[in-house]
Fold each of these.
Amino acid sequence: MSGPDRIKNSFDNKSGRRPNAQGPDRAAQAREARQAEALRANLRKRKAQAKAQHADAKSSEKGPKSGS
């Protein structure tokens, strides 16, 4: 009777991996590295766009004033 209980308990961790395995596998590490690099590139792109918009807004403020 101890056999089936032991097998059931070995798969109780719900991660699908053996209990003695350590850390994420290489594919998961590579995926996380790609995602992190994509996020950094996206942030650089958004910062550049915001900087350009800010510069455009400032230059339009310094233009000729209409009014009195």
Note: The mean pLDDT is 77.
Amino acid sequence: MLGNQIDANAFLKKAYEEYLQIFSSGDLESELHYLSYEFDFIHDRDIDIFGRMMIEDDLREITNILNEWCHLLHRWYAWNKVLDFYKKDEQKEWELESEFLELIINKCLFVPSRIKDTFISVGIENFHQIRLAFDKKYKDEIRGYDPILPKLEPIYLNRRKKEKILRKVLHFCDYNDFFYELMSLNDRHYQKKLTGDYRNLNSHNIAPRITAGIVSPVIRTIIKTTKMEENADGSYSEVEVKGNTSIAYSFGGKQPLDRNILFNANLEEFKKAISCYKEFKSLLMETISKIPNRK
């Protein structure tokens, strides 16, 4: 028993040393860059102290999210390279993925949806503050977004409704480039086709596994009821019974997702998020530049 534990520890240690060598080599540096924390354009403008703090702190947190994602992608890439060495030994490959990589993949697959929602929510709040700073007739009120009497409870809006509110807040400026990048993030092709709806299923149901293992092998579906009907020539055809449905059970299940395909898809989402960040920050800088300097 002790000998087996020593062998297992030696195996994990060797794999981790291989990972560190690849991670330190910086193979992905040409594609993945950390964002800088340059927010000086906010400081000298005549923005209310709370508004100024809100804009800077929110931008810093978005930068933190993207930099953390960048770091996780570097780690994921290095572990993919290590695990490729062990493809002929599926048990060892699975052990390494479970021990070192599974949580990294899980966190990365949640970020595209998270960062899109963050851009929308932060955009509503930040550009509202900017409008307050340079338009004295603009009221400190976001209709459909702010809690209302009598309960003053938070309003939980879906993404489409928040997008509409963001457009209304932004109507004072040219936001088309920002919205083009925003809408490209976490699109249906990425969600359903490339990741098997992993993020949504992981939150609310049973998500597909990574690399190995089939889940939900029995499928229950609602289908249109049919019957066999004799044709004039004596043959039979299946025809629909209008207005009726039936329950069908079948074997199928969700196939495992390939971690290398997932990585490439997630990397592309990261690049989209960086483009969105640049447009978001550019729009902040452009609109803030219209605000007079503090006296």
Note: The CA atoms of residues 112 and 211 lie 21 Å apart.
Amino acid sequence: MIKEICSPFRQLDESGPGIRCVVLDAVVDPELPRWIYQLAPAGAPRWAPLFAGTGFAALADSGPAFVLSEGPGDWADYANAMLEQSHSGCVLYLDDLQNWDAAVKHLQSILAVSTEQRKNQLMRFFEPRWLEPLINELTAEERQNFLGPFRAIAWRNELGWRQLSRLQAWNRVIPEPGWLHIGQARLQRMTQIRLSIMARELAQDYGAVLKMPEPTAFVYQCLLEAQDAGVQQKAHYERWLRLVLGNSDIPWPTSAAKQVIARVDLAIAGKLDELERLQG
């Protein structure tokens, strides 16, 4: 299952589970294609724009790139910085370079998922904040199919660097796009897993003031209450937690706070502003 690891860029090449590659998102850095060529170790870089040749080809200029990233050097430093400093992608360990073309097709097959509304809904599978919720929601067979020709996948979220390794050999089958179904029930479970990850991070960040026996459980319950109040963004969840902690000597939300939360003329950011004004 998922395990904690050090940065894939601080490991010796021979200590990794396979041939190191990265998926990086040009949405984070529009200059990504230029850096791929400018920082390539020696000769032409080996890479593929993943939206090319798919139903998302019109977005190719701002889409993800799959790049061979073996060894140290300027490109590895750039990729490491991107993954450490932004939610820009993930690391994949390929079995064999002979499987490069198959690996590109495999990654394109998991760019699209099926939902109740669409057969080919774009899924940015490489988004590190959602990789752990997704992986935890997959069955063992789906995890195997999700990894395909890759021995392992690594990503960095609020808990640090994480890795999932393949348990069985690749069956050399590349499924059609949309093979993975993400229905509303599954998406809701993924959202709750995402919430639990945020709770673990916030419990660590606010450990000095969380004196209860199970701080992570306390924070998670606070985030659930925030979710019920309409909170969706991470920064807003933290603001809600700070309100709870700032009113620790009284039951919160108070009646005045409940009136603010019930207002329909304010978006959630406005409600939090009002709640913070009430708190003083």
Note: The mean pLDDT is 94.
Amino acid sequence: MNKEIGRLTRKQQIKIILQFCGWNSTRKIASIKSVLAYFRNKKFEVNEPIERWLQTYFEINSVVYIGRDDLYDGQPVYQFVYQFTLEQSELVENTQDFKDILQFSQEQCLPLGTFGYYYDGVVAIGLSGTLYIKHDYSEDVAKFDSMTDLISYELRTIEKITAISNTSSL
């Protein structure tokens, strides 16, 4: 499915990107008990706000394609990765990027998985509810108060998003 989104505001575009990835405003994952047990078995503390966040945004494993007005006639060809699963959490838990997030954040963090536009990074959530992302091409760790802020950051280099699709146009 291909959807033209060039005339929408960035906020509306972000909501559609989330929806294409599998999120919706009433989403609750069925496997929350096993997710909480997994993190607690790994000695990660999970408070109520983090549990609510996991209910809403975790267990999404998606790659969608975004079009830009300046390349490929606006066709959706650039990957946007959203992979917050137990498997991805385990894969990133021992990476240098996650260790850098822990050092930067100065709080206990849950490794969530990989996320991002074109070149994805490691994402974690702190007990404070702050989201952190670290890309291996940069020394910087960035922090955010919400998923929409995180997505805005990842899309900051695109002046105009034209379309989104579940498949690449190339």
Note: The first strand starts at residue 2 and ends at 4.
